[in-house]
TrEMBL record:
Protein name: Lysosomal Pro-X carboxypeptidase
Keyword line: Glycoprotein, Hydrolase, Protease, Signal
Keyword Protease carried by entry: yes
InterPro entries: AB_hydrolase_fold, Peptidase_S28, Ser_carbopepase_S28_SKS
Species, as recorded: Stephania yunnanensis
Secretion signal, residue range per the UniProt entry: 1-24
GO MF terms, alphabetically ordered: dipeptidyl-peptidase activity; serine-type exopeptidase activity
Similarity annotation: Belongs to the peptidase S28 family.
Pfam families, sorted: Peptidase_S28 (PF05577)
Example GO biological process: proteolysis
Length: 508
């Protein structure tokens, strides 16, 4: 039976938690590489040696927090459908030209985390808004942060009946209501709206443009793997294949050492006192109870390094430098431990807190449910395409695990039914418009992204060296020229949409 990697929030964004099979018959509670866009929410378990980060919201006095009385169920007329909850959103007025100027509204669609995380590094929005005198709105995703129905998170997560309202389609309808409310409240009905999102939020942004084109006239979807469903990504060509390719591009010998290490861990663990030897070798804070826990944490480290391999610290490079730079005669497992130390260099730790998982956060709890409802993304480790142990995605085992956890089975084909995917070029070319799909090809999620232009206005902006959601972060002196050009391309496309919108609506 497949098992599952416990991840503690991002993954990255994102980042970014996918329920992923690992190497043992013993189950480790949920999930897998998460979609999140911010490195503070790693795609995997918060790697034990890594110092944790805390999210902060801006102290700018022009940020104002509001609560909209949101409908629990947008699609039915049952008595409980009319329950409401306080839906949090934040507005940044500091750049806005005002309703009379018909200045645009930039809306960040919240993903699988509290609103504070979405606000932590909205660099692209804040750097481009002054140029267009845009209003910026951040909307929280239902069941996260303060936007929780039924009075409390404990009540909301009590059972599957209450969690049943926790879906991506309900969230999209939430966003539509809030955006229309904000425009009416500010008397800005004519102002064009562009939605933005990173990772899962990017998926929501692209879907929002398709579902509510009368509300948003354009969308920027950063690192949005909207095609990572059903059989759209080959079993051997998905997330972990890209991680492996990233390592191989830096160093073939590093890649080979990692690939060799799994068998050596397994073989050492089988020996008398083998787990004690592994514990000493990896300087673990507590004795290892199984080789699987060690393997799981190492897999999360390598994948997180690839997903967020960006300046000023390129962690794939750092890992490979540690492995390849080890003195002659260093064993494979000693090289791997050197990689662990290198990955976390600069953190004040005395031992490797392997398997030292903190209690599940609201993100891990929330995304676990979403993965067991409509966000069934089939990620596995292929036999020939990765440097990881063979562990294919098994849909039936996945569904059984979800049923065991929640008492309901997921709908594994719903997203493709709702938004298509198999004929996306043909379908979107005929009825879609004004979507930017941005991807860095070093990002493991890029294999599920749209990587080519579908039409003149549904365009792919890709960077060969880019990582997860890098384009939406604040610019930095460390930025390579290609990400500078990427951001410039994206804003020019958005300006073109706004000019066209203003022309069609008779706005000067």
């Amino acid at each position: 039976m497949d098992t599952f990697i416990l991840l503690s929030c991002l993954l990255i964004q994102c980042f970014l938690m996918i329920i992923t099979p690992t190497m043992s018959q013993q189950s480790i509670p949920f999930e897998g590489p998460r979609l999140s866009a911010h490195p503070d929410f790693k795609s995997f378990s918060d790697h034990g040696i890594k110092a944790s980060s805390t999210s902060t919201s801006s102290s700018n006095t022009k940020f104002r927090t509001y609560y909209y009385k949101q409908t629990l169920d947008h699609f039915n007329y049952r008595p409980d459908s009319f329950i409401t909850f306080n839906h949090r959103y934040v507005i940044d007025f500091q750049y806005w030209g005002g309703a009379k100027t018909d200045a645009p509204i930039f809306v960040n669609l919240g993903a699988e985390a509290p609103l504070e995380l979405d606000m932590k590094d909205p660099g692209f929005l804040h750097e481009q808004a002054p140029k267009l005198k845009a209003l910026i709105v951040f909307i929280e995703h239902r069941y996260y942060g303060q936007s929780v129905p039924f009075g409390s998170r404990q009540e909301a997560f009590m059972n599957a009946s209450r969690l049943g309202y926790f879906t991506s389609t309900q969230a999209l309808a939430d966003y539509a209501e809030v955006i229309l409310h904000v425009k009416k409240m500010l008397m800005a009905e004519r102002s064009p709206v562009v939605v933005f999102g990173a990772s899962y939020g990017g998926m929501l942004a692209s879907w929002f443009r398709l579902k509510y084109p009368h509300v948003a006239m354009g969308a920027l979807a950063s690192s949005a793997p909207i095609l990572y469903f059903d059989d759209l990504v080959p079993a051997d060509g998905g997330y972990y294949a890209v991680v492996s390719r990233d390592f191989k591009a830096v160093s073939q010998s590093c890649h080979n050492t990692i690939a060799q290490s799994w068998l050596e861990i397994t073989e050492l663990a089988k020996k008398p006192n083998g787990l004690q030897q592994l514990s000493r070798l990896f300087n673990t804070c507590s004795p290892l109870k199984s080789a699987t826990v060690l393997k799981t944490d190492l897999i999360s480290m390598y994948a997180s390094a690839a997903q967020y391999n960006r300046a000023p610290v390129y962690r794939v490079n750092r890992i490979c430098e540690a492995i390849d730079g080890a003195p002659k005669g260093t064993s494979v497992l000693e090289k791997v431990y050197a990689a662990v130390v290198a990955y976390d260099s600069g953190t004040n730790v005395s031992c490797y807190n392997i398997g030292g998982y903190s209690p599940p956060s609201e993100t891990t709890k929330g995304w676990s449910w979403q993965r067991c409802s409509d966000m069934v993304m089939p990620i596995g480790q292929g036999r020939n395409a990765t440097m990881f142990p063979y562990s294919p995605f098994d849909l039936q085992d996945f569904m059984n695990t979800c049923y065991s956890e929640y008492g309901v089975y997921p709908r594994p084909h719903w997203i493709v039914t709702e938004f298509d995917g198999h004929d996306i070029d043909l379908v979107l070319k005929k009825f879609g418009s004004n979507i930017i799909f941005s991807n860095g090809l070093k990002d493991p999620w890029s294999n599920g992204g749209v990587l080519h232009n579908i039409s003149d206005s549904i365009v792919a902006v890709t960077t060969t060296e880019g990582s997860h959601c890098l384009d939406l972060l604040y610019s930095s002196s460390d930025d390579p020229i290609w990400v500078i050009k990427q951001r410039a391309t994206e804003i020019e496309i958005i300006k073109g949409w706004i000019r066209e919108y203003n022309l069609m609506h008779g706005i000067n």
